[in-house]
Amino acid sequence: MVVTSLGVAFAVFLMIFQASLLMGFLRAAGKLVNATDSDIWITPRGVVCFDFASTMDGRLRDIAQGVPGVESVSRVSVNFVSYRMPDGQQRIVVLIGADPSVGPLFPLPYLRGSLHAMEPEAILLDETNARELEVFTTPQDVEINGMRAHIAGTVTGFSSFLGSPYAFSSFEDAQRYSGLGNSKVAYLTVKVAKGYDVNALRAKLAAKLPEVDVRTHGEFEHRSQLYWVGQTGAGAAILTAAFLAFLIGLVLVSQTIYATTLERLEEFATLKALGASKGFVAKIVVAQALAFGVAGGTLGALLAIPAVQFAQKGVAWIYLPVWLIPAVLVPAFAMCVLASIVSIRTAVSVEPARVFRV
Amino acid sequence: MSDCQLSVEGINVTLGRGEASVRALRDVSLEFPAGAVTLVMGPSGSGKTTLLSVLGCLLKPQDGRVHVSGKEVTGLPEDELTNIRREQIGFVFQAFRLFDSLSAVDNVVLAMEICGKKRQDVLPKAEEYLDNLGLSGKKHLKPEEMSGGEKQRVAIARALVREPRILLADEPTASLDSKSGEAIAQILHDIAEVGERTVVIVSHDERLRGFAKNVIGLRDGKVDGGLN
User: Fold this and answer.
1) Which pLDDT belongs to residue B226?
2) Does A275 contact B82 at a Cβ distance shorter than 8 Å?
3) How many domains does chain B contain in total?
4) Dihedral (Cα; B153, B159, B163, B165), 10-degree rounding
5) What are B120-142's pLDDT values in tens digits?
6) Residues of A in contact with B113 (CB under 8 A)
7) I need a labelling partner for A103 at 20 to 30 A (CA). Which of A277, A322, B136, B178 fits?
8) Are residues A15 and A52 in the same domain?
């Protein structure tokens, strides 16, 4: 009983942990898109994800702003820049800047008490990257692309999985540090006025701006996620690992349940000798499997939750949504029952006369 | 045959296949009367256990006929044989064959649940049978917490709770000390005589002769000595 439950627990643990990596990866891939208060994204033609931006003409903002139904248009800048640490070492960071209207959840160095005015030459870092970039107290002076800047503070939940940390500033500062000026922009986010249909406005903007891509917020988020998961080695590795973990977990559960049934053949022979029908024996096998599934599954989930929390110290983007636990447990239970069905044949066909063997 | 609930007529059983096959029973004809203990004795390999398997509808003979409660069961399909075992035959095994994860009373209840009855309906009856076998204080113990004699009493309660007319016991005293063995033999004797049941015991244990009305000898699959 204990060994079987532990087997199921290990399988469920593995499935939940790997699925958490995948969920975290997907969430991180769309995190900055989701942090904006936008309905539509205008992007340079062919951009595959948020992180790998190119530039488009900044005047497109004025054109978009003139389309009926557009409430506001915000500029977003995304560039890889050189970051010089206090000890002189250099690192490449992804510098992201945006207008204040991009949304209150987007990490920007606002002046204290304001959601409109931003501190000049100020940079925010995710707290998980601060130590790596030798920022131990704030404010701290640094250099970005040879220009003076200062780390004004840290934010949480915006760590990068690219390998290059994110740094956040105002749109103007980001463009200046990147040497682009205000005539270019990476993205434009559009807020649709109340009473207007997002898809209809998206089509209208697309017609008005034929040289760029116009997508809904959800479409761009999914495009970014699909790119990272489907078209990069890292994403493919995580997706494959999650899929394999799921398969391995299911196979482990099946094998464990089947092995347990084989171990209990003598008991099934006794039941049959006592007059148990095939249906009764089958019911016992399924009930046993479900009991193992519930006990092992619960244990596996209980172990996976703190394990994921612990892992977040090193892999900040790993994410275990509450719904993921039942999403893993339900197929695990189903697999227990399925494995037991395979076992039923063995259990009901056991020779009852073996009860006389000692 | 009026008081005979169990009989075999001209049965032959061959176990195994090819060169490894063994003729376990050869043209055996026997009757087992109700109200008495019939003891089947014989050396190892004589066919005692095979005979018990045939009597318990666990093994079909290649030839011959088996009658249970006046009905020939030889050619019945597996499901019907299962019904006969459930309704008319109780088993007591040498190794007890209790379910370790269940308490004594739950082992007895299980025998009733197999018949489709609900636990709450049969619990009092199961407890009554355990009480009658002197296990009042042990009903909620697991088998591992009980002595061999106590386990065998639980097994007897399990066999009797469905009130079968036939009780088949395979070496019921072999795993017990002499005192416990004697007590179990007395219980089986009383079950047969007081309950008017057919009790068949297969054993090497010579002490059981004193509790049996009939003793049958088996040797090399043949009856070796008739009814006493």
Assistant:
1) 52
2) yes
3) 1
4) -110
5) 999 999 999 999 888 999 999 99
6) 280
7) A322
8) no
